[in-house]
Write a structure and sequence with these properties.
244 residues, alpha/beta, globular, P-loop_NTPase, Rossmann fold, ABCA1 protein, ABC_transporter-like_ATP-bd, AAA+_ATPase, 8 helices, repeat
Length: 244
């Protein structure tokens, strides 16, 4: 699963954990969140050891697992409220954070709907920001799965999480929701350490300040997208200029 993996993650950056299915991404995430104990070695998060200090680590950590973990009978708003209070926010703080997250995820009109009954809605992808490199998607129905996934990602940021671990947050969602999640991550990157696992190369390139490529549980290479393209990308370019 994971074989001698050694890697640093930095505050204010998104590190894209890129690898094929079975490369060890989810296992690494599970170890960092305390779901699986390491058989050897350890990891330090903000100076705390995952083997002995997980209670302290979890106070400032947010996570979005590979599959949604939502309560069917709770509304979108109640989910954010529940996790905010669980993180120790006051009623005033959680109310303000709820409004902010609902706006940033584009879900204010769904705030009182139970997650099991989330349905598609018509809308247009926002413009501007790094994610604007993608073609705009207009007049598109947003499937329930995309909305549920956006909520799961938003929950990871509740309570001022300083370390955020996202395990394939856009896998299986529609293009509109995928772009919306990208914009949310880019907006919330500042002051946080975000680790994003993915098997989409375009996602790793667009979001990652650094990209770590893993295979068979081992780190193959790590660096900025530009560095990796320079070292591992196209060997040369041929440019043809049309004469007037």
């Amino acid at each position: 699963a994971v074989d001698g993996l050694s890697l640093d993650f930095y505050e204010g950056q998104i590190t894209s954990f890129l690898g094929h299915n079975g490369a060890g991404k989810t296992t690494t995430m599970s170890i960092l969140t305390g779901l699986l104990p390491p058989t050897s070695g350890t990891a330090y998060i903000q100076g705390w050891d995952i083997r002995s200090d997980m209670d302290s680590i979890r106070r400032t950590m947010g996570t979005c697992p590979q599959h949604n973990v939502l309560f069917d009978i709770l509304t979108v708003e109640e989910h954010i409220w529940f996790y905010g209070r669980l993180k120790g926010l006051s009623e005033q703080q959680v109310r303000a954070e709820t409004e902010q997250l609902l706006r940033d995820t584009g879900l204010p009109h769904k705030r009182r709907e139970q997650t099991r009954s989330l349905s598609g809605a018509w809308g247009a992808a926002g413009r501007g920001g790094p994610a604007a490199r993608l073609p705009a998607v207009t007049g598109m129905a947003i499937p329930a799965g995309g909305m549920q996934r956006k909520l799961s990602v938003a929950i990871a940021f509740v309570g001022g999480s300083r370390v955020v671990l996202l395990d394939e947050p856009t896998a299986g969602v529609d293009p509109y929701s995928r772009r919306s999640i990208w914009e949310l991550l880019l907006k919330y990157r500042r002051g946080r350490t975000i680790v994003l696992s993915t098997h989409y190369m375009d996602e790793a390139d667009l979001l990652g300040d650094r990209v770590a490529i893993v295979a068979r549980g081992r780190l193959c290479c790590c660096g900025s997208p530009l560095f990796l393209k320079t070292r591992l990308g196209t060997g040369y370019y041929l440019t043809l200029v049309k004469r007037e």
